[in-house]
Predict the 3D structure of the following.
Amino acid sequence: MSTEANRLPTATLPGGHLDCTGCTHRTDDWKTGPTATFLGLLLFIVYSTAAAFQGEHYMYENYLSPMYSPVVFTQLERTVTTPEGETLKVAIPGAAPVEHAWFGLKPDAWPEWLPFSPAFLILAFPGAFRFTCYYYRKAYYRSFWANPIGCAVGPFRRGLYRGETHLLLFQNLHRYALYFAIVFIGILYYDAYMGFFRHGEFGVGLGSIVLLLNATFLACYTFGCHSFRHLVGGRLNWFSKSPLAHALWKRASFLNERHMFFAWLSLFWVGFTDFFVRATSMGWIPDISTWG
Amino acid sequence: MAERTFEIWRGDRSGGEFKEYTEEVDEGMVVLDMLHRIQARQANDLSIRWNCKAGKCGSCSMEINGMPRLACMTRMNQLPAEGKIKVQPMKTFPLIKDLVTDVSWNYRQNERIRPFKPPAPDSDGKYRFQQADADRVQEFRKCIECFLCQNTCHVLRDHRKQEHFVGPRFMIRVASLEMHPLDTDDRIPDLKNEFGSGWCNITRCCTEVCPESINITDNGIIPMKERVVDRYYDPVARILRAITGGGKKLPTA
Ligand code: SF4
Ligand code: SF4
Ligand code: FES
Ligand code: FES
């Protein structure tokens, strides 16, 4: 993609510059970054989609996968057709019990042909938050859309570029996704808290720690959000007259400087937490805990 | 010391080519030293713009091995030890000759920005604010106007949207005025309608090349985009403003 061989015939400009997608005279390694970003995001999209479609093994005892939290509706059994043509109701393993779901069982009105998973009802919120995040915007504009794929490297489709105007104006509503994300932090900390109580008894298990770290990494990501930083103080010009706003802004700025780090760490950890709960529920890994 | 070969673009808008020059490198030399040595010994007519040799005047911006950089701040031992070193003028601005470009488009953008407008001073004729109020603005004041960010921004460099977008250097100049505690003017409508804040897709190449390490995107452009959101896109903020009769600064456009 980046070789000079594929450049357009008219592509060399005065100054010896190249003018085509992926063309550059850079000799350093500019490809590893966007490639790693592309693969990392793709892997997460594939994993989270697959995990969301499972609809089972998302809860083990007092551990709930963050990809299914909160459980709005649960489903305890599903209909399967045997090879002999019989229809049976079978229990769904690792599903949230009814008392854990905000509104109980999946409504009867849910169409039969439409697949159901508790994850479908909530994933749009964290999804929208990450999709409109200023860091992820940079990441996917660069690695999925090649605009630009690297600095001083020819971007994709010159004629079509309109920045964040026109079709991408919705990115300006990122702060609304943030409001939901803050609510989710509360919910995930509640889940982490519940991770320390099994059948009412306090204890610690691997899962309790995994869930607690999950909520914490997500909080570090969320409170380093550019919109959060703006809303708590960045919008003001007189910091000295608003010491509380200034203090909040400074803390948000500390996290904001590490926003990319927490974006990746929390993304990885959400996936890992889901995998952990899933694997424990399926018996792939032992349930190490003080509950014995 | 070792010899190194440079491929330097020689020519003007009507055409030109890369020419090779081999020269000895002494310890501690920067690319600008090498260009001067080549100019003195082999190519007296090589055009280079430079002034301070200290990374402070912003004159010697060019592209070295494809990367926009200051020639006076690029040490020879930072470059790969092998191979030829390619030196080109900046891509985004019209070429004058060899490594010199016409950066006057940038000055015209600067003129479009409304100047600092302070209120009346305190009764003793002084202005007062705290360091905390000045910190953010001071970061932007480090700018040496090398225009490397303008050169690298793909909106200007490749998409050629000069008629829509003023570029990162002027986004942070607007930010330095808008965040200034003593400024009373309002540039948010200009930012959106005239300066094209929406054309930046926050991909941060300006920040990557800034020799003054100004966090252009995170500290300047994104906060300005958020202020544009407050004013134009956030429905709740708009309703609140309608009820309360607006904030400190009212839209003028
Ligand atoms: S962040 Fe915006 S201004 Fe900076 S280089 Fe990218 S598109 Fe241009
Ligand atoms: S912001 Fe940085 S890169 Fe841009 S003109 Fe100023 S010093 Fe140069
Ligand atoms: S900017 Fe990344 S979450 Fe808001
Ligand atoms: S000569 Fe002044 S910045 Fe390089």
Q: What stands out?
A: The mean pLDDT of chain B is 95. Residues 104-244 of chain B form a domain with the Fumarate Reductase Iron-sulfur Protein; Chain B, domain 2 fold (CATH 1.10.1060.10). Strands of chain B lie at 3-12, 15-24, 61-64, 67-70, 85-88, 95-97, 100-101.
